[in-house]
Design a protein that fits this description.
The structure is a homotetramer.
Chain A lengths: L10 H21 L6 H8 L3 H7 L3 H25 L7 H27 L6 H24 L7 H21 L7 H16 L1
The structure holds a DNA duplex.
DNA sequence: TATGAATGAGTTTTCATTCAT
DNA sequence: TATGAATGAAAACTCATTCAT
């Protein structure tokens, strides 16, 4: 039972563990996983290097915790939206609301999203977590729609496609990379496209 | 004149440089940039570790060369399609062809795409190269459409959105991550969506 | 008065100190001194890491306590045998008894013996303790023999040699390392050899 | 094929690898395996820390190489003695010669012997190597005796016991630990004991 | 040009010991 | 006395880059 990881129960400890996760979140966002070292994490969290390994097995274990936080940050707003969904659905009103919500979430999480998503290629656990996130979003939306009596042909494919579109658009929108694009126009275009998809 | 990088003129030298790029391409695809070290690159290319620094400033410089190749691999098929474009356009026929072409390209390049794209977050030059690629694709398509007399409202936004959709779908298609998705159904959905966008 | 080590007087304290020693004894036996860390000792003893330093100066100080116990475990059976020694000695009967007793002791202590003895090379105090143990065994046996009127030429050398032989044989016997050796035959050989030494 | 270990072919490289082994041999002898760190090994060998890992997988791999050298240093003199053995054997002359030879070998190797032997407890490979050494010595002696026509009852047990006696005595002799022992007297006693064993 | 051995700063990780509670 | 979280120095090991040949 070497290297037993403290599962902190006391408030102070939990706070310290969270500080380490927050520091890592921040640093991974800014300079990526490979650009961050454990000494910097410790320093940024205001703790010693040693205690980092009191709370986490290794550097990758911190990554997983950061990933957890990220996943929650992304998934929770979606759940909230779904909770408030009532029949009959007015897609004309609903879709823009959702698009704006996703943009808002993405604005807050874009950098850590990039940092974490860039690891899907080389870290199977991270990859799985992202896939699972997509699965959960798709399936929960499908379930909800069915529950409130909205009949859709090929619901999984439609929802998933819509999600992909909103996601990649949000990314474009947030990073505002191309000066020949009018992102307001593009936003409306995205909404229209998705509305058409569901009608 | 320290660190003067040879611009190889002799055939043998050019071949050697290409071998290094190919080896890197392969290794970056398989285990990513950070998972590859220069000794492995040299070994895989069949050259010495030292000579790598005869052809490249540093490891990142190899990355840039690999990126160039990748960009060309992705952009060339698009150029070819554009070259063959003649008015009047039949979107019903054209869009599926393009979608399938992008899928085909993506099948060949998906892994290196991930490896390289994951670096956009931390490497500004890589980031710019990806943005520029999108710019060039969007603008060239727009130009071509104009040239052959196809009038479209908000062409940049439409083309860019279409590109985003096709790209993210191709990624889904190639990695085939979700078992509840019928990717054939989804492909048709993507085509339909894009056709609607342009009509 | 920094680092003042408590000499535990209360019963509970003495018990706690003993628990730490026992835990260390066990762990040193299993994975050696360097393979054991103080956190494990504390955990195995059911105490906090901090209090270990209430009873011991440092990790090495625990080692010394473990060594003390070991020395006692080895020396006491010998004392008991010596106490029961009465003239005239029948070496034919006595030697096998002693050999079997040493084997028995060794069976119980072989692993901790190895763990501790392996430190004689780098820890002078441990080394001295082992030398002193041999000294005391040799001298006490010599004294006893003299006391009961057994005259032996070069008693120290003989006793010491006999002790060495019995010890190294016990080690062989306990670990049973060589399959081409019949350890029963070897045991009789050892007894015979020692009997001859003293006749 | 990460961390490929150089198998040095060039003379300079072999020399460097040997230097590292020699430095380790020296340091392990003086302060033991756990008292030596790789930086010190490198410094003592006059090389960089990095190149140590060019020649060896890890620190333990150096240990194994040191062990190999030690084994050879101990085994070769025995082989030489065996080679020169001719019937009829005069044990009265032969045994003292062997005892002195073993003492001589031990004088040269006692410290590294202790350092390496202390690891048998925690490193199975080291343990096996020591057992194998004893096996080879015992079996080769037995074989040789048979070859030159010397008939012995229970040869393996006798030879092994004799080896144990000589070994533990050599150890005593070299470290000269007990001032009440006359090691010259003890040496004769050892010789006598072994001669009796074989007659 | 080419080799591949060599460098050494930098990284992750461990653990005896201390200290706030 | 007792706790166990916290410290930080030190360890093993890696790898981009250089350099003697």
């Amino acid at each position: 039972m070497k290297n037993a990881i403290r599962e902190p129960r006391q408030k102070r400890s939990i706070e310290k563990k969270n500080k380490i996760i927050e520091a890592s979140y921040k640093l991974f966002s800014e300079v990526g996983y490979y650009g961050t070292n454990t000494a910097e994490i410790a320093k940024c969290a205001g703790v010693s290097t040693g205690i980092v390994y009191g709370y986490f097995q290794d550097k990758r274990d911190i990554l997983i915790s950061v990933l957890d936080i990220y996943i929650r940050n992304v998934f929770d707003p979606i759940l909230k939206i779904l909770d408030n969904l009532r029949a009959p659905l007015n897609f004309e009103l609903l879709v823009p609301q959702i698009v704006d919500a996703v943009i808002k979430t993405h604005k807050k999480n874009a950098k850590i999203h990039e940092a974490l998503h860039s690891l899907t290629h080389t870290d199977e656990a991270v990859n799985k977590e992202f896939i699972s996130l997509e699965d959960r979003i798709t399936l929960q939306i499908a379930e909800k729609l069915k529950k409130i009596g909205v009949e859709i042909e090929n619901p999984f494919e439609k929802i998933h496609l819509a999600m992909d579109i909103v996601q990649s658009f949000s990314h474009e929108y947030v990073f505002d990379k191309h000066d020949y694009i009018d992102y307001i126009v593009m936003r409306d275009m995205v909404c229209r496209t998705i509305i058409n998809l569901f009608n």
